[in-house]
Structure formats: C-alpha cells, structure tokens
Write a structure and sequence with these properties.
Helix content: 25-40%
Number of strands: 11
Strand order of the largest sheet: 1-3-2-4-5-6
Number of domains: 1
Radius of gyration: 26 Å
Number of helices: 8
Order of helices and strands: HHEEHEHEHHEEEHEEEEH
Length: 392
C-alpha cells in the first residue's frame, strides 16, 4: 500500500512538473513547432507571382470603379508553417486567412473611399520574425522582392494623377518601409500624391526619419498628408509581445539590409486623436472597432464604439482591456501571433482617411494657385551695342 502511494506521488509530481514546464516553456515550444528545418542555403523558394495576371492579386479593382483614391495594401503574415521559409502562393490555409480575415479587416476601412490593390506575395513564414539569423533575413528579402515587383506593376497601371494611400500591416508594414525608402525619397512627384502612409503592427524607429525616410516624415496631426502614421497596439498584459516589438523586430537600413530596432525610440501615432503625444485618450474618443470577417469585401460592419482607451508609452499604443471578450487579443501558446478577426480601430481609420483626403485636396488646390518657382539666375556676359545706321 505504501509502495502504491509512493509510486502515485511520484507520478503526480512528474505530471505536475510536465504541466508546469509546458506552461513556462510554451512560447519556445510554439516557436519550435513552426520552425522550418531546412537551411536557407539549400532552400528553393516557391515560384514567384506574375503580377500581370489576376491570380497574383488578392484584390484588383474593376475598371469602371468610381472610388476617389488608389490604396496599395500589403497584408500581414498569414503563413505559419514549418514546411517553407516563404509561403507558396497556393497554400490553402494562408489563402483562406488572407481572403476571409485579413483583407476585409485590414483593408476594409480604406475600401469605402479607395480602390484596393493588394498583391499576393511569398510571405516570410511567421518564424522568420523570431530570428535574427541569416535564414530569417533571406526569407524577408524574398518576400520584399515580390512586393517591389508588385508595386512597380501597380505604378505602371494606375492613374498617376490620383491620390495614393499606402497601407501595410505587420510583415506588410516592414515591406512598406522598404517601398518608402526605394521609391519615395527621390521622387517628389510620387510623394505629392500621397494622402497617408499607414504602417500598423510594425515598429518604425524614429531615427529612420533622419536618414532612410527623411522625405516622408511622421504625421503630427489628424489632417497632415504626405507623411507616416504608425503604431503597435497592445494591452499592458502582453509584456512579451511589447518587449519583442521594442527590441527584436528588424527594419531596413536604407542599403537593402535588415537592422535591429533594439533600444531605438519608436514612432507611436495615437489612433484615437492621430497626434504624436503621450496623452491619455479615453474610450469616449473611440469611434469604433469592428469585425468584417465573413462579410462581403467592402460591406461596412457593425461598430463597437468606446471599446478602448489608448496611450502611447515607450513607442507602444497601450490600450485598455476591451469589455468585449472577442476584441481581446489571445494570449499564450502562440495564440497571440495568430491573425485577429477584427480591426480595433476600424471606424477611426475610416473617418481619419476622409479627413486627410479633404486636407490633401486643399493642399493641391493651394499649390495649383502658386506661381511656378523662379528659375536660377543666369549671368549674361557683356556684349557691344551696335547702333542701327541712319537712313540717308
């Protein structure tokens, strides 16, 4: 009997130990399960998209559209498999997430006023963003190469006189930073069209605006145009994710390489008042969260108003815990990395986009009234004056 009790106690202790170990190591275990085992040196990425074909686009507007703005939208990470470093374009789970969750919730707020151009691209798998090693770099570079090609095709096809909105969520925000570096810093004509640049759930170090993004500064007010809006929104309880957003993400350095954001101050636009301050903005200013999952793309979802307060703290848009459970980001065993099926600031973004559209129209009208700038003065050499001979 005593032996049975001893064996039972040992077994119970072992089970308890395993449960505690799994709980403590759950994040490492979750990462292990999505870690591709193949070295990138021997990895052959999936076939690249052909952007002249409709299959290469998650969204491409109809030719007879009457929308007022062109929106180039780069979705966040939908692929989290250990089978590839870069997502195959026909991966069924990723395609379902892109079409049913990401496109309607991330691009939805922009679709009422704008035509949405959204490329498929060989996304870096989720694990690539947990490592700063070579394979993680190369996976992101492969993904960005696709986005660059898609953007070049978009520019060649789109009306160059229309206002332009750029939107990138998560991984898409990283690639949007790359587009800003490669296409907007030396192109004043392209910058002139920009209504707003929205980099969401991707860290944007403030020092980038001193070099790589010097010509596309942060927006300071809700009606600023031709500038960058960026935030990472988390409840305070997500300490690990907040730390990762502040220390472990990587950004382009201006020379096509990736550089750590560690200890670099981050841009934080408060999505309730659209200002660059650390002021606390209460729930009363929150216009509405929404879930467009399952709705027809472009259909306006029901709104949940006054769901969260927001305060920028150390580069993070720290939010209060939403009263609605379905608006609370999951926590634990990798659930915090899954694509959320709502947009916490859906209506706030939609209304702000309209404000910036009106502001850009005013700016363009004012610029059209201005006289063309004077050309640089040219020195003229002295020349003899020959008088006209008198007529006899």
């Amino acid at each position: 009997m005593n032996l049975r009790l001893i064996i039972g106690g040992i077994a119970a202790s072992a089970i308890t130990f395993i449960i505690v170990a799994v709980f403590l190591l759950q994040e490492n275990l979750a990462k292990f399960l999505i870690n591709p085992r193949i070295p990138y040196e021997t990895y052959v990425p999936p076939q690249a998209p052909e952007y002249a074909t409709s299959e290469a686009w998650l969204s491409w507007p109809a030719a007879n559209s009457e929308k007022l703005v062109d929106v180039f939208y780069i979705p966040s990470t939908a692929y989290r498999s250990p089978e590839h470093w870069n997502a195959p374009l026909d991966d069924a789970p990723a395609l379902a997430t892109l079409n049913k969750v990401l496109l309607p919730n991330e691009a939805g707020p922009f679709s009422e006023i704008g035509d949405i151009y959204a490329p498929h691209y060989r996304q870096a798998t989720l694990f690539a963003f947990f490592t700063q090693k070579h394979q993680g770099h190369e996976a992101r570079k492969t993904a960005y190469a696709d986005v660059r090609k898609a953007f070049m095709y978009f520019l060649a096809q789109a009306d160059e006189t229309r206002p332009l909105v750029l939107v990138g969520y998560g991984q898409g925000g990283l690639h949007l930073q790359g587009l800003l570096i490669d296409y907007f810093q030396d192109n004043p004509g392209l910058r002139k069209r920009v209504l707003g640049i929205y980099i969401i759930d991707q860290s944007t170090p403030l020092d980038m605006f001193n070099y790589a993004l010097a010509e596309t500064p942060p927006c300071k007010y809700p009606t600023d145009v031709r500038c960058v809006i960026s935030w990472n929104a988390y409840e305070a309880r997500h300490e690990d994710e907040i730390w990762r957003k502040q220390n472990r993400l990587m950004v382009w350095d201006g020379d096509g390489n990736l550089k750590s954001i560690e200890k670099r101050p981050l841009l934080c636009t408060n999505p309730l008042d659209w200002k660059l301050t650390d002021d606390f903005i209460s729930r009363e200013s929150h216009l509405g969260a929404a879930s467009s999952t399952g709705l027809k793309f472009g259909e306006r979802p029901a709104l949940i108003e006054k769901a969260v307060s927001v305060q920028c703290d150390s580069g993070i848009a720290t939010i209060s815990k939403p009263r609605q459970r379905w608006l609370q980001r999951p926590h634990g065993f990798g659930k915090q990395w899954q694509s959320v099926d709502y947009n916490l600031f859906y209506e706030d973004i939609r209304v702000n986009l309209e404000q910036r559209f009106i502001a850009l129209a005013t700016v363009l009208e004012q610029e059209a009234r201005l006289a063309p700038p004077m050309v640089q003065a040219v020195d003229v050499e002295e020349a003899p004056i020959n008088k006209v001979p008198k007529q006899r």
